Amino acid sequence: MPAPSLDLGLTIAAGSKRELRLRNPVMVASGTFSNGLEFARRFDVDTLGAIVSKGTTLRPRRGNRTPRTVETPSGLINSIGFQNVGVSALIAEVAPVWARWRVPVLVNIMGETVAEYGRLAARLDDVDGVAALEVNVSCPNVEAGGMEYGQDPALAAQVVREVRRHSDLPMVVKVTPAVTDIRPIVTAITDTGADAITVMNTVPALAIDARARRPVLPTVFGGLSGPAIKPIALRAVYLAASATHLPILAAGGVSSGLDAVEFLLAGASAVQVGTATFRDPAAPWTVLRELTEWCEREGVRDLRELVGAARRRD
Ligand SMILES: Cc1cc2nc3c(=O)[nH]c(=O)nc-3n(C[C@H](O)[C@H](O)[C@H](O)COP(=O)(O)O)c2cc1C
After folding, report:
1. Interval between CA 306 and ligand 1 midpoint (Å)
2. Ligand 1 pocket, residue 79 CB under 6 Å
3. What is the 3-state secondary structure (H, E, C) of 84-108?
4. Residue 55 CB less than 6 A away from ligand 1
5. What whole-number distance in Å separates Cα of residue 70 and Cα of residue 76?
6. Of 22, 140, 222, 312, which has the highest C-beta tally within 10 A?
7. In percent, how much of the chain has pLDDT > 90?
8. 237 CB under 6 A from ligand 1?
9. Is ligand 1 within 6 A of the CB of residue 192?
10. Cis before 67? omega within 30
């Protein structure tokens, strides 16, 4: 008798009118896959679970001065500054291409004010090719003295409510590790209407050029990503899972199928592959293949067997 096939599928907002079905739990991380168009020329993007767009703002942005990235042992510090074409060009020129793909595309949005998040959500609602929103709350809030929305539960909740008021799309909210305790933020986001939570964005970091006696990046600080942050992300996922019943999409140093398994065991339902794609553009597909092989070897029939299995049950 043939073995029952492995079920890799995942549903976000299950049972609601916003239900979003992913055929597998391997996605790409925002800002590391551009808007996917270049990759689609070389790879079969439809075989991934989901694509996440570049961070998109209301108006086009040219980004920060260069250099914008610096390599560190096992990691990358970036300060791109949200270079992007802006939401109007995204809708006019990019979304029609996405509409021809089978893979769902989540648009990662970033506002400078709460109202801007709402306007972005309204613009993207009902656009063919846009399957869901990923709301990046790691943005300094100009209305509240520069604190990031994602660093304060009340501010994060305000953003989630505003996005929900303007859009019926499935809403994923992406949190920052730049907090003392991630749990109150995750609880606030869960209670105000998110459908899933991405854990996590980059870790605040600094690189110094000793010879020049100054910071390498013109913005001084940047965000650290890659294998260096995987243990931090695993802990963040573990903690987040104790504060929400929503699916957690894990990001932070995922570069192999085994990394994906570890994140599932910590409580994630899916993983996003980011910096690994800079080293090897095929990384998301490698992660998917290795995850599938691992499950077959271990006799896993349904990924839900793994989700949170390493968590303490006392
Ligand atoms: C060059 C670069 C650009 C990024 N741009 C965004 C972005 O626009 N929006 C966002 O939410 N996260 C952005 N991120 C964060 C990633 O999506 C991801 O959360 C983080 O890099 C951790 O995953 P990784 O270690 O697999 O890269 C960016 C990361 C990098 C390295």
Report:
1. 25
2. no
3. ECCHHHHHHHHHHHHCCCCCCEEEE
4. yes
5. 6
6. 222
7. 93
8. no
9. no
10. yes
Residue given tokens 């239900």 in the structure block: 19
Q: How far is the CA of 313 from the centre of ligand 1 (A)?
A: 32
Say yes or no to pLDDT of 1 above 50: no
Tell me if residue 295 is catalytic: no
Cα 1 to middle of ligand 1, angstroms: 44
Q: Is the pLDDT of residue 261 over 50?
A: yes
Q: Which residue has the tokens 């990235």?
A: 69
Among 26, 32, 85, 237, residue to substitute to test ligand 1 (most atoms within 8 Å of Cβ)? 32
Tell me the domains of the chain and their CATH numbers. Answer: 10-63+83-204+226-305 (3.20.20.70)
Structure tokens at 214: 């100054």
253 CB less than 6 Å from ligand 1? yes
**Cβ-contact 156, 170 below 8 angstroms:** no
